[in-house]
Amino acid sequence: MSSDADTRVPATAADEAADEAAADRVLDADAHDLVARLRMVMARLARQQRRSFPSGLTPSQTSALITIDHFGPIRLSDLARLEAVAPPTITRIVAKLEEDGLVERQTDENDRRIARVTITDEGHRRWEETRDGRNRWLGRKLASLGDDDVAAILAAVEPLERLATAEAGTLGGPPGPVAADGPPGADVAAAAEGVAGAAEGQDDTDAG
Question: Using CA atoms, how far apart are residues 10 and 134, in angstroms rounded to an integer?
């Protein structure tokens, strides 16, 4: 299976240096260790939930489908920017989603040179089925913890949503929380999917 990880839009050296300098101003040595632990646990949870309730889609395809659901109809150029991938990569991702009947392209009424992508009924059904199954999975995981642990995790949902939707803010942000109503852990599951996808580098060798 092909991977989109190598074609994500690269940061410039100046961007990376600025990010590192900003992180160093905020994080001391102990905090750096916590960041590494957070990255690892988010990635591990995302892999576990994908394997417990696979969707048949790669992480990049799943992410694009969610973004199209939130913002569609959306131009491919805007979708590529939100997903932080190169235009040829988003074209391949959308082509596969279109082949599977999960999205469709629509010609702009005012400019027929512009095509926009929207999610189909089957795409809605597929994502809702996957989301609900993963929400139930994470709800069961949370139920095994004590009340204080659950409260601490749920208190982190809004900051995690801000991390997961930082790019989406350039188009006004998604309508409401990352995840819709669901059992305890629903919002955490969606936020974990987005943040952990970035932590894993959107490794598309693990479909699900």
Answer: 31
Q: At what angle do helices 59-71 and 76-83 cross, to 10 degrees?
A: 120
Quickly tell me which residue has 């991390």 as its tokens. 163
Could you report the per-residue pLDDT of 140-165, keeping only the tens digit for each?
Answer: 999 999 999 999 999 999 988 888 76
Grouping H, G, I as helix, E, B as strand and the rest as coil, residue 76 is: helix
Q: How far apart are CA 35 and CA 39, in angstroms?
A: 6
CA distances from 105 to 37, 73, 97, 188 (A): 41, 8, 11, 31
pLDDT digits (tens, 9 = 90+) for 91-117: 999 999 999 999 999 887 787 778 899
Who contacts 95 (Cβ-Cβ below 8 Å, separation ≥6)? none
Neighbours of 107 (CB within 10 A): 11
| 118 closest CA partner among 80, 89, 85, 79 | 79
